């Protein structure tokens, strides 16, 4: 049963402690990465047999397989995927950056916006299927202008990729899809193999092995973030329905046994009602075991004196998802400093953001919303700056540059500026 804590009556550690995975995967992942670096495709085929229990003929998803997938997915769901893609595209098109140029007195300074050339998107498999992740990761990359977008995702024991993943990839405009998952997929994207081209950026969530692999290859390639277990925090008052709040908390608990679901409320009666309602709803879930472990081990209901304290708690925890379930949620929006994505009002469940609204669902976790942001078009661009000076413009500042460089003891820097100045 979810714990009920009264803020101020328990230690801060009980309020603010986070889930920390206990699995030590560093050495295992390091070995996998080195094997893929040395042996390329051979290592990928071997890992497919070992981890995915399948002997693959090819790592590449063919166009025929993609076409067949459209016949295996319900037309109604294909239409929903297209609607979701449209919403995601509409939101992310607003993020497009433009370069700029300053031209004054013989000096031109500017900045160019350039998309990365190749991006690799990791799409998890295993306990669930995530066509939503395909859309969330591929659409911003496409809008940014990435020239080649590749997906890596683990196959099933028949060597197939879930058809919903393939349909989503087609709708989003993905260029290549590979049947490889786990840390070995990250290594393949980072270093390249005979079949899989090296990319410039890797994005997408995954398990502890995938997260560790992204951490280890960072520097060889860019990554979006190191994603931890899923999180949700709900701030709610006495006017909310316990059944709504319980289902919102469980929406993240069913992701992973390590997921955390937290309610912060100024109403003790709501707290106790939600505690009971969670137990009622748990028994109805397909993923009851996962959700129950998450709720029992990591879930919390925190009772506070007022909603201003609730906001302070939220800012300290910096949750991945934050729901503000009150009648006038915009009163609190500007007070939120640290959260991945904020859901406002009583009719805005977190699931809207996961699938359909258009905001991105690849979000900072584990408190990293204090300094990082949701996946966006910005993740798929880089900025290059440029400078131009006329002869007169350089002559006017050469002495200043000379003096500055000499102060840092860099004589060649100083001479490079002054040597061009006309005597």
State Rg.
25 Å
Query: Low-confidence parts, pLDDT < 50 over ≥5 residues?
Result: none
Principal-axis shape: globular
Mean pLDDT value: 95
Main sheet makeup = 6 strands, parallel
Q: What structural class do the secondary elements suggest? A: alpha/beta
Question: Strand order, biggest sheet?
Answer: 1-11-10-9-12-13
What amount of the residues lies in strands? 15-25%
Structure explained in plain terms:
With 423 residues, the chain is of the alpha/beta class. Helix 7 links the parallel strand 5 and strand 6. The chain is globular. Helix 2 packs across helix 3 and helix 6 packs parallel to helix 7. It contains 17 helices and 14 strands.
Give me some keywords for this one:
423 residues; 6-stranded parallel β-sheet; 5-stranded parallel β-sheet; 17% strand; globular
Summary?
This protein is an alpha/beta fold and 423 residues long. It has helices at 12-16, 26-39, 41-51, 63-72, 75-93, 131-144, 163-172, 182-191, 208-217, 242-253, 268-282, 288-298, 307-317, 330-333, 350-355, 391-407, 411-418; strands spanning 3-6, 100-104, 107-115, 118-122, 148-153, 176-179, 201-203, 222-223, 231-236, 260-265, 300-303, 321-325, 341-344, 381-389. The longest helix is centred in the first third of the chain and has 19 residues, at 75-93.
Q: Layout of SSEs?
A:
Blueprint: E1 3-6, H1 12-16, H2 26-39, H3 41-51, H4 63-72, H5 75-93, E2 100-104, E3 107-115, E4 118-122, H6 131-144, E5 148-153, H7 163-172, E6 176-179, H8 182-191, E7 201-203, H9 208-217, E8 222-223, E9 231-236, H10 242-253, E10 260-265, H11 268-282, H12 288-298, E11 300-303, H13 307-317, E12 321-325, H14 330-333, E13 341-344, H15 350-355, E14 381-389, H16 391-407, H17 411-418
Parallel strand pairs: 1-11, 4-5, 4-7, 5-6, 7-8, 9-10, 9-12, 10-11, 12-13
Antiparallel strand pairs: 2-3, 3-14
């Amino acid at each position: 049963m979810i714990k009920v804590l009264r803020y101020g009556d328990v230690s801060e550690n009980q309020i603010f402690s986070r889930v920390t995975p206990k699995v030590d995967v560093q050495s295992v992942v390091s070995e996998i990465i080195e094997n893929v670096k040395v042996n390329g495709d051979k290592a990928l085929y071997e890992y497919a047999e070992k981890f995915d229990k399948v002997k693959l003929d090819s790592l590449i998803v063919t166009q025929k397989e993609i076409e067949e997938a459209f016949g295996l997915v319900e037309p109604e769901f294909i239409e929903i995927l297209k609607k979701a893609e449209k919403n995601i595209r509409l939101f992310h098109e607003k993020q497009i950056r433009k370069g700029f140029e300053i031209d004054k007195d013989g000096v031109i300074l500017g900045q160019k916006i350039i998309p990365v050339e190749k991006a690799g998107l990791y799409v998890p498999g295993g306990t669930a299927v995530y066509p939503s992740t395909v859309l969330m990761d591929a659409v911003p990359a496409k809008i940014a202008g990435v020239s080649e977008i590749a997906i890596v995702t683990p196959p099933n024991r028949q060597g197939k990729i879930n058809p919903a993943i393939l349909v989503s990839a087609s709708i989003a405009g993905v260029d290549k899809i590979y049947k490889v998952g786990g840390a070995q997929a990250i290594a393949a994207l980072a270093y390249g193999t005979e079949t899989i081209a090296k990319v410039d950026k890797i994005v997408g969530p995954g398990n502890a092995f995938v997260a560790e692999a992204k951490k280890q290859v960072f520097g060889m390639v860019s990554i979006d973030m190191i994603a931890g277990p899923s999180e949700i925090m709900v701030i709610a008052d006495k006017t909310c329905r316990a059944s709504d709040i319980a289902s919102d908390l469980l929406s993240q608990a069913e992701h992973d046994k390590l997921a955390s679901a937290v309610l912060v409320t100024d109403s003790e009666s709501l707290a106790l009602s939600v505690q009971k309602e969670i137990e009622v709803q748990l028994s109805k879930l397909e993923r009851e075991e996962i959700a129950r472990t998450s709720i029992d081990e990591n879930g919390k209901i925190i009772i506070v004196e007022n909603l201003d304290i609730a906001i302070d708690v939220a800012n300290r925890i910096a949750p991945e998802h934050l729901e503000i379930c009150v009648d006038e949620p915009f009163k609190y929006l500007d007070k939120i400093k640290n959260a991945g994505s904020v859901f406002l009002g009583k009719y805005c469940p977190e699931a809207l953001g996961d699938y359909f609204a258009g905001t991105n669902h690849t979000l900072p976790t584990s408190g990293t919303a204090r300094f990082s942001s949701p996946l966006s078009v910005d993740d798929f661009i880089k900025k290059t700056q440029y400078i131009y000076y006329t002869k007169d413009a350089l002559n006017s500042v050469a002495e200043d540059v000379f003096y500055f460089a000499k102060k840092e003891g860099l004589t060649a820097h100083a001479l490079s500026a002054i040597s061009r100045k006309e005597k």
